[in-house]
Design goal:
This protein is mainly α. Helix content is about 50%, strand content about 5%.
Amino acid sequence: MPGLVLAELDYFLRDERAAMHAFMDDLARGAFTHAPPAPDQLVRAMDIDRRYGDLGLGLVDASVVALAEAIGIRRLATRDIRHFATVRLRDGSAFELVVHPADPDRS
């Protein structure tokens, strides 16, 4: 998980500090995959950002897609349904989204 993603996660959990602390504890014990983006992944992220220019992905979300492609991740925990339900991986497949709450617009 790139450092940029950790920054975005912290932003989204700004009002849920206990959840952020629990996540960081899990990350520290190895419960999640953590990998900084390689230069080729950043190039791919910028390609993805250009491809979905109308969506306004940005570097963070596009780097998540590039990293997922690189390490074979197809399942994402996110509240960002608008972006990650739209984007397709290089092979044309969609992400399997794990969302909490199930309908973030109602949270």
